[in-house]
Write a structure and sequence with these properties.
Blueprint lengths: L2 E6 L5 H11 L7 E5 L2 H15 L8 E4 H7 L11 H14 L5 H4 L4 H4 L2 H20 L4 H6 L6 H21 L5 H7 L4 H4 L4 E5 L6 H11 L3 E7 L6 H10 L14 E7 L5 H14 L7 E5 L5 H8 L4 E8 L4 H13 L8 E2 H8 L2 H4 L11 H15 L3 E2 L2 H5 L3 H13 L9 H18 L2 H9 L1 H18 L22 H10 L2 E4 L6 E5 L10 E4 L19 H7 L4 H17 L3 E7 L9 H9 L5 E2 L23 E2 L3 H9 L1 E2 L1 H9 L1 H9 L14 H18 L2 H4 L3 H16 L3 H4 L2 H12 L2 H12 L3 E12 L5 E12 L2 E8 L23 H9 L18 E8 L5 E3 L3 H5 L2 H20 L5 E2 L18 H7 L1
Parallel strand pairs: 1-5, 2-3, 2-4, 4-5, 6-14, 6-15, 7-12, 7-13, 8-12, 13-14, 17-19, 20-21
Antiparallel strand pairs: 8-11, 9-10, 16-23, 18-19, 19-20, 21-22
Helix pairs in contact: 1-2, 4-7, 4-9, 7-10, 14-15, 16-17, 16-25, 19-36, 21-22, 22-24, 30-31, 32-34, 34-37
């Protein structure tokens, strides 16, 4: 038979070439096997085959992943293969058997990890990777000793050999064999191979020596074709492949150009999400279908951020999502916190208890207890007790007082997983307890809730992964011939035993393939053999792409070269090859990196792209992205600070936005925060507040009062202060029930009731205004106007009062109002004046606006009595802080204000002004994006 290696130009999809060859080879498709680097490549190939054949392919070729094909191509082993956790445990015992010999290799540190499984995991993984590598490369310890290059090396090799021999023996005693040994020693399975007349490999990188030997054996019995996307010089491993399989193969010169490239620099990782979203929109505008777009991530850390910001439904995530996002994991985390608290007179802290009783799993347990009430009702009783007594801790007796046996049982079941009062536990016993708890808990859930869990693909897949890991831990050493207690967790880490299990789960990911999402979110390794029209690659920093250099395990670089083993340089060259394949096969690429002390310098691969990319590409990097801008603006000179430049897409976006007073105030305080919230469209992170947030009180108050003032008969509402307060309080109670932060956080409930009781002052002041002739004529009034700047302004005015021809524009403040009138003086200039909300509302009303009712016609500024903050925090009365509005002519003031706003709006949309960080660190104190910007400075300030 014959073997051929075919190098395919980057611009020609490898899968398309394989389709054409398989369809025209003369061999029946059912006698053809095609081998791919990944299952995702198989999915893409099926579609390519249908498109290429232009017909329904009834009997297609056999499609395999490389791992699956190699396993089938070898004669079945006499032993089973241990799971990953089992391998670590058995290796741990192998080291213990030669404990006295380990000092030369580990320099006396072996005692720190041999008796603690969790500490052993890292060193165990390094050893296993080393043994796997030398096995599949068919290198013996005698070979290694012959290449000894330093004095103590032979001692080290002797220790490694002793561990390996012990490990092999323990594997055999337990009915196992190392998978790497099987790959190196097994004979070809002729029965499997003989069913094919043609075998095609979609090669993507390099083959190890065991694989090369098998491929040569295959080529002697079957026609073998290997296709690889490659141009330019070959790697040493490629040359070895050619010499072994097809000596006549020739590589291709570099002919495929780089695509159109956009490069952006960002000050932090999360802001790259906005760039990714912008790139996707640009691709769609240019007619590139979603299935031809790939977001290539160096690791999965950014995947969750991207899906949270841009939406989960659009993406197919090849690399999976972390298990920590699962509600199963969150419940175990809560139990860990709950069970770590001392069960004495102090009881449970209300935070952990509240988190437990309000978790969806606990709230949806069906009625199986003697009282016949749901746990949701019992949980409410517990929380009510905390609220009534403002208890920071709740003793066990409180459950009996509330007659909540169901909840008490649930907490006792949870505590049974782990308690500090128990004796030493093992990872195995903890995993077994957790698995039993999850299984029993699911049986107690209501049928409707279980159905919802089953229908949620992410929840279902994350559950399967958690149970898989737990089962793997439990099944370690099924025959228990070595250690009847399983892997031991040492006494000093007893309190962290459940934490140890969670740490294993934290590193797991679950299958997150979304059939509806067609944009690929993928790792660089998974792009092998695939081609996309548009490629988006964030995090192009050293340490991410390529990944941080990993010291060659136990063998130095010189020794690895002499043995023919791949070095770190070879691995990085291979990553460069994959990146080259991906980029030169695309039509356009969007690349970004982070410039910060934590991320270090940009990737060497990106440096090469910047050096070799021809003119005409949209490259804004390095000094270009952080240059100082000197173009004069309309209102003030550009800041002499570094910032994020506004590109064409950003300017277009700025012109499409609607501008409210709050968004302009955000820009005034910090243009960079404006950029994060309005351009990147990052949602503000959800925070757990120690105190009841003023924003929450304000939302409840606004909704309640607007409903009352719209619908209630004024004759009844303003009968007296007591009636007014009763109606307002009832409306606030109804609204507060819609907010879990009030209902389910005891301290917030306490603070809210305290604030509500003080609203009597508000009712008393409202009665005085009513008797003075003021009538509320508009609440929550939506107003929009097309400003002369070319931008659209909008606002929601809390309230407008009228008395005769006079009106008052009012803004409710459940938080602090300005401390001094100086903050609200327009004459103080831009540096101080940031309280623009009330004059901004008047600006909307004085123009041709969209307001409904009597305020649709323009409001004359001279008819405005004043601009008022309604203090609902302390004094519960109106405060006129805009004294310069009252002292000067209203129309003159508004002309100055309009000029002020026009200058700010012109600056916002002017590319000459970058989005720079605020100079005043005080503006950072309550910024929601503190984790992405100047966090250390903020800590120092606070």
């Amino acid at each position: 038979m014959s073997a051929s290696i075919h190098f395919v130009p980057y611009r020609e999809p490898v899968l398309s070439r394989i389709c054409r060859v398989s369809l025209s080879s003369g061999t029946a498709l059912e006698k053809t096997a095609i081998v791919f680097a990944s299952s995702r490549a198989i999915t893409f190939f099926r579609k390519t085959l249908m498109d290429t054949a232009k017909r329904e392919v009834i009997a297609g070729p056999y499609l395999y992943t490389l791992e699956d094909f190699l396993t089938r191509s070898l004669k079945p082993p006499a032993y089973a293969f241990p799971a990953d956790l089992q391998r670590r445990v058995l290796l741990n015992h192998a080291l213990k058997k030669c404990r006295q010999k380990l000092a030369p290799l580990f320099k006396g540190t072996e005692d720190s990890f041999l008796d603690d499984y969790l500490s052993f995991s890292s060193i165990g993984d390094r050893l296993l990777r080393f043994y796997d590598e030398v096995s599949v490369e068919r290198i013996s310890f005698d070979d290694i000793k012959k290449h000894a290059m330093y004095t103590d090396f032979e001692k080290h090799v002797t220790v490694l050999q002793s561990i390996w021999e012990n490990y092999r023996q323990i594997l055999h005693d337990n009915g196992f064999e190392a998978r790497s040994v099987f790959k190196a020693e097994a004979e070809p399975e002729t029965d499997f191979l003989s069913q094919f007349a043609h075998i095609i490999f979609a090669a993507s990188g390099i083959f190890n020596r065991s694989e090369l030997t098998l491929l040569k054996d295959i080529s002697e019995a079957v026609r073998l074709d290997i296709f690889m996307s490659h141009e330019g010089p070959l790697l040493p491993q490629h040359k070895e492949m050619i010499n072994t399989i097809s000596p006549n193969a020739k590589s291709l010169p570099i002919s495929s150009p780089l695509p159109r490239i956009s490069v952006r620099e960002f000050p932090d990782a999360v802001t790259q999400a906005g760039f990714i979203g912008s790139a996707i929109q640009q691709c769609r505008k240019e007619g590139i279908p979603d299935e031809s777009i790939a977001i290539v991530l160096p690791d999965e850390s950014l995947a969750g951020t991207i899906t949270a910001i841009l939406g989960r439904k659009y993406f197919n995530i090849a690399m999976g999502l972390p298990v920590v996002t699962s509600p199963y994991f969150s419940l175990l985390k809560i139990i860990q916190q709950l069970c770590s608290e001392e069960k004495n007179h102090a009881g449970y802290s209300h935070q952990s208890l509240t988190a437990f009783v309000t978790h969806p799993f606990i709230k949806n347990i069906k009625n199986t207890f003697d009282n016949g009430k749901s746990l949701g009702i019992e949980a409410k009783k517990i929380l009510d007790k905390i609220r009534r007594n403002y208890r920071l801790r709740l003793p066990l007796t409180a459950f009996e007082d509330c007659q909540a046996p169901g909840l008490l049982v649930e907490i006792e079941k949870a505590e049974d997983i782990f308690s500090k009062q128990k004796s030493s536990q093992t990872l195995k016993t903890i995993a077994s307890s957790v698995l039993n708890y999850i299984t029993e808990l699911e049986q107690r859930l209501s049928n409707d809730f279980r159905r919802k869990l089953h229908l949620d693909r992410d929840v279902r897949n994350s559950r399967e992964k958690i149970l898989e890991v737990l089962t793997e831990i439990i099944l370690i050493n099924p025959g228990e011939p070595i250690n009847t207690s399983g892997p031991h967790i040492s006494a000093h880490s007893l309190q962290a035993s459940l934490s140890g299990l969670l740490s294993i789960l934290e590193g797991q990911t679950y299958n997150a393939v979304n059939r509806e999402g067609v944009i690929s979110m993928i790792g660089l390794l998974e792009t092998r053999n695939l081609q996309f029209d548009a490629v988006i690659i964030p995090d192009m920093n050293e340490g991410f792409l390529p990944a941080s250099s990993r010291k060659d395990l136990f063998l130095n670089t010189s020794l690895r070269k002499s043995l023919g083993l791949p070095t770190q340089e070879d691995r990085e060259a291979l990553f460069g090859l994959y990146l080259n394949q991906l980029l030169r096969g695309a039509k356009q690429a969007y690349l970004s990196y982070v410039r910060s002390d934590e991320r270090g310098v940009r990737s060497r691969f990106l440096e090469e792209i910047l050096l070799t990319a021809p003119p005409g590409h949209d490259i804004q990097a390095g000094c270009e992205a952080f240059r100082k801008y000197i173009v004069p603006g309309q209102f003030r000179p550009p800041p002499k600070t570094e910032g994020i430049k506004k590109d064409k897409e950003t300017v277009i976006r700025l012109k499409e936005l609607n501008y409210s007073a709050s968004s302009i105030e955000t820009y005034l305080r910090c243009p960079y925060r404006f950029y994060l919230s309005r351009i990147c469209q990052l949602e503000e992170p959800v925070r757990i507040e120690k105190e009841l947030p003023a924003k929450l009180k304000g939302e409840i108050f606004h909704k309640a009062v607007s409903l009352v003032y719209r619908n209630e008969n004024p004759a009844i509402l303003f009968r007296d202060a007591e009636t007014h307060n009763r109606i307002i309080s009832d409306a606030i109670d109804r609204q507060s029930k819609l907010f879990d932060q009030v209902q389910h956080v005891p301290s917030n409930q306490f603070a809210f009731n305290n604030w509500k009781s003080r609203l009597k002052k508000f009712s008393e002041n409202e009665m005085l205004l009513y008797r003075d002739g003021w009538r509320t004529t508009a609440v929550e009034l939506k107003v929009e106007v097309d400003h002369k700047s070319g931008l659209r302004l909008k606002g929601y005015i809390d309230r407008i009062d009228r008395r005769g021809d006079e009106i008052r524009i009012i803004d409710y403040k459940t938080g602090a109002i300005p401390k001094t009138k100086k903050e609200c003086r327009l004459s103080e200039g831009r540096g101080i004046f940031t309280r623009i909300q009330l004059p901004f509302y008047l600006l909307l009303l004085s123009g041709k606006n969209s307001a409904e009712g009597e305020f649709k016609s323009r409001v004359v500024p001279e008819k405005v009595d004043g601009l008022y903050f309604y203090d609902l925090k302390e004094k519960f009365r109106m405060e006129n802080m805009y004294d310069d509005f009252s002292e000067t002519g209203r129309s003159k003031y508004m002309a100055l204000f309009d000029r002020f706003i026009s200058g700010i709006l012109a600056e916002i949309k002017d590319p000459a002004y970058p989005f720079h960080h605020t100079k005043d660190i005080k503006n950072c104190k309550y910024c929601p994006f503190d984790l992405t910007c100047r966090i250390e400075e903020k800590k120092a300030f606070s």
